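Final report, section 2: Outcomes. Of the targets proposed, Zinc-type alcohol dehydrogenase-like protein YjmD is the one most frequently requested by collaborating groups, and we therefore present its record in full.
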Amino acid sequence: MKGFVFHGPGQASWQDVADPGIKEPTDAIVKVDAVTICGTDLHILKGDVPEVRPGTVLGHEAVGEIVEVAGDVRTVRPGDRVLVSCITSCGRCRFCRDGSYGQCRGGGGWILGHLVDGTQAEYVRVPCADLSVHPLPAAVRSEDAVLLADIFPTAYEVGVLNGHVRPGDTVAIVGAGPIGLAAVVTARMFSPQRIIAVDLAPARLEAAHRLGADAVADAHEAPGELVADLTDGLGADVVIEAVGVPESFELCTRMVRPGGRVANVGVHGRPATLHLEDLWIKNVTITTGLVDTHSTPTLLRMAAAGRLPTGQLVTHTFPLDHMEEAYDVFSKAGETGALKVVLGEKQHAEVAVPAA
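The predicted structure is given below as tokens.
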């Protein structure tokens, strides 16, 4: 089969790789129908995630069909259409019993495309399949469902829930890429007073406004002043960091009000300065986290009911074997306007214009 293989920082290729096979009694083999590229994959290619070994197939998000299951798998069978979660859960360790699947110590956590071969291939082996794949309702299209493998649970859990967004809050979201836009959508479920999106790219700010942001700000044009103006100088109740660079994190800590919450979602490859000389007196809560995907069943139900506009984030589609082209388009989002790219056997290379 073919897969997209990481060879070291700045080096990867779509090439022949060995077909995956059953290794453990809890495994399932999935034929990939739709897959997407995550900002974390770009961090891997930059060398920000040194645990990924050369020779690893990348990717941790997919929709596909079960083609084989091992003897201990009980919840799915060959022929089932499933969402492959970005997080693998053993279901037995202390963290899994608490619903903290991202911290699994039983062979799970974020392993696909990280510690084992991932989803950017024609087939993928999914360990701990009973808790790591989700049967898909027929009403949810594959290109919509694949966004529920990672970005929507991540934005919702690590951003909105960790930030404790409440009715009447002012929510500032720094970064209007896919995670930031999913945070806009899911924060709206809690009826905040206003949502302010901050980014450098006009197209992303336009998308944030279309998806529900009440105000947008260019990151180069004093967004902190806009937040202060809109909050009578107090600052935002919740600030969500959705970029993963020191400058954006430090901006978040300047925009939060006393007693407010900063929810860091971004994957950081460089140290950021924590200005405790300013923050110690402000009663600020800062959270970090890896998604647990405990919210995936809820988000799937919302998507099936038409309450979650996942498809509006998809700007480009490609055939599965156009992986290198898709990476190029996604990595040059400032030039291409890419938000999410979806690849699959039934996809054609095109640009999708989200509905206004």
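The longest strand covers residues 28-36.
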